[in-house]
Amino acid sequence: ISSSNMDPDVAWSLFEEGATLVLLGVPQGTELGIDCKSWQVGPRFRGVKMIPPGLHFLHYCSVNSPSCGGEIGPKTGLFLTLKPREILLANWDPKEEDLDFSASRNEEEVNRIRGTLRELDPFLGPYPYEVMRKWVSLTDHISEKLASDLQPLTGRICAFSDVVPELQFRHTKDRAEQPRNDTACQSMKEGLDRLPKMKHREGTELRFSVIPKKTYPPGATPAEITKCSMDLSYALEGVLEKKYENQPLNLLGELQFAFVCFLIGNVYEGFEHWKSLLALLCRSEEAMRRRKELYLGLITVLYHQLGEVPPDFFVDIVSQNNFLTSTLQDFFQFATGPGVDGILQKKAEKFKTHLTKKFRWDFDADLDDCAPVVVELPEGVTVD
After folding, report:
1. 1: pLDDT strictly greater than 50
2. Distance CA 152, CA 158 (A)
3. Residue 205 pLDDT > 80, yes or no?
4. Is there a contact between 23 and 99 (Cβ–Cβ < 8 Å)?
5. Contact predicate 92/24, CB 8 Å
6. In this structure, what DSSP letter does residue 186 have?
7. Cα distances (angstroms) measured from residue 165 to each of 92, 171, 267
8. Half-sphere exposure of 155 toward its Cβ, with a 13 Å CA cutoff?
9. How many beta carbons lie within 10 A of that of residue 43, not counting itself?
10. Distance, CA of 15 to CA of 51 (rounded, Å)
11. Which residue among 72, 140, 180, 251 is least crowded, i.e. fewest CB within 10 A of its CB?
């Protein structure tokens, strides 16, 4: 880790006020990183120093020794909020292949480490300050409380889901009721139906907002159902009301949290939630007229996020459809429509021009040839 390019005043300020992660016993070869940067741990590594106070994402992958094949394990990460001059102490647990931070709760031990920081200093790598600006631009809406509320109860964000069967099949009777596996499957569907239904192990799931499958109010008429299927404002307001009524901009924090979980933490579920949340925001026409600040913030958040991915990243390999262009096409159409604040309209136009230039995406294609929206009506509802 090198800090040779750092401004001397910044370096001195971080040396004085920066936090320190003391990470003892991390095996050589482990991939470990903080925020947007990662390294392979060497034999002298004891942690990271000069960390700017605030929110950070620590992530690591255990690695088998070269004699055992040298395979890299799935990534584990956690969000940490560090105070000025704070010391967090963790020991590597070889059995769990994870960092154990329980020593940080032992004040005596932390004070002992503080007293030996000078001796430890040559073994601590400086925080990669060159990624700080990028990191802040990707996380500026994530508060300490929001990160804590969205993280799994275990405190660990894992690239591979820890799943268990929904049914335990403890008794012979339970197993007898399951599809038999002693005959050949006649179809892919039959094969999938035979597999046991799985769920996240309790406490390991990310605690994202639930995006409603029904986007219309109870008792809605067919006309209202159609309207709420084309303009998702009712569903968006429901999500905001449930979790972010007093701080709607926290929804942008959740969008950033999901993106970081995917981009840095390799959590595919984070990407899926990011897409769902983005589609909800971009297809809420009425909300755009009423929530100017939320949508001005969304454009800035997307500007920074899309700077991190290659242009063809969002193309569906099967259909060659680009999820993002179709979603943003709706957004730009709504954001420049009647009743939308002039400042938001201008910013949306500017953003559209930027994306068209940078990614060569065409947001005006097929607008005249709008396909009809197919709407699922609830059982019992008929169109007169």
Report:
1. no
2. 9
3. yes
4. yes
5. yes
6. S
7. 30, 14, 21
8. 9
9. 8
10. 9
11. 180
With a pLDDT cut of 90, the percent of the chain lying above it is: 63
What is the largest distance, in Å, between two alpha-carbon atoms of the chain? 81
The CA distance from 234 to 286, in Å, is 9
Give dist(CA 91, CA 102) in Å, integer: 8
97 backbone φψ class: left, alpha, beta (φ>0; ψ -120 to 50): left
This prediction has a pTM of 0.84
CB neighbour class for 193 (10 Å; exposed up to 12, middle 13-18, buried from 19) = exposed
**Distance, CA of 287 to CA of 335 (rounded, Å):** 10
pLDDT digits (tens, 9 = 90+) for 314-357: 776 555 567 888 899 999 999 999 999 999 999 999 999 999 99
If we measure between CA atoms, which residue out of 225, 240, 202, 236 comes closest to residue 331? 236
Type of residue at 29: G
| DSSP secondary structure code for residue 169 in this structure | -
The tokens for 369 are 């040839």
Query: For residues 76 and 74, what is the distance between their CA atoms, to the nearest angstrom?
Result: 7
Measured distance CA(141)–CA(305) in Å, rounded: 13
* pLDDT for res 13: 77
